Amino acid sequence: MSTALAKVEAKTAMTIGQLIELEDEARGLLIDGQTPAEYIQLLQDRKMFADAIRFLAMALPKREAVWWACVASKSMMAKDVSPQDVATLSAAEAWVYQPTEENRRQAMAYAEAAEFKTASSWSATAAFWSAGSMAPADVPVVPPAPDLTAKAVTGAVLLAVAGAEPSELDATYIRMLGIGLNIAQGGKGI
């Protein structure tokens, strides 16, 4: 894996690791001077995929993280996916393409309609939690916590992986992380 994650601003894994919840074993692997790419590779090598996803979701800028959730969700959609799920994913993608307040609130409306049951709905939730206010538009601003986007992205990616056949689980985790790493390197994830 390339160590150049152009979209990740943090120079050390420790900087990101201090901001998120990690399993004890994963936290124990954080060392001074370690790059984010080195840490993600170490987690992958040890098959600590959920921690690697959690870490990368926090390391990416919010817009890129939401895009990762969208690409992961779309890549695992079943052929018989509901029109509602397609529309929910489209709302999240619309926010990525144009991160306006209108698109952010529209994404949440779709996530709520989907009852937060799908990877697409968590992609849309990640868009909503990216900025602005979590409160209705006509009341005082309630900003989202800084880690909420990463938590929703993690949920979206993990729900996408859950659609894999059990025999393909490790390969699917690696593929989902590959999508996120491609985005972190400045790619489109596809």
Indicate the multimeric state: single chain
- Span from first to last CA? 17 Å
Q: Considering DSSP H and I runs of 4 or more, what fraction of the residues is helical?
A: 55-70%
Q: Report the mean per-residue pLDDT as an integer.
A: 95
Name the overall outline: globular
Cα-atom radius of gyration: 16 Å
Estimate what percentage of residues fall within beta strands: under 5%
Runs in which pLDDT lies below 50 for 5 or more consecutive residues are none
Features:
mainly alpha; 10 helices; single chain; 190 residues
Describe the 3D structure:
Helix 3 (36-45) packs antiparallel against helix 4. The chain has a domain at 62-163. The longest helix is centred in the C-terminal third of the chain and has 16 residues, at 169-184. It starts with 12 loop residues before the first helix and ends in a 6-residue tail after the last helix. The protein has ten helices and no strands. It has 190 residues and is an all-alpha fold. The protein has helices at 13-17, 24-28, 36-45, 49-59, 62-75, 83-97, 101-113, 119-128, 148-162, 169-184.
Layout of helices and strands:
Layout: H1 13-17, H2 24-28, H3 36-45, H4 49-59, H5 62-75, H6 83-97, H7 101-113, H8 119-128, H9 148-162, H10 169-184
Helix pairs in contact: 3-4, 4-9, 4-10, 5-6, 5-8, 5-9, 5-10, 6-7, 6-8, 7-8, 8-9, 9-10
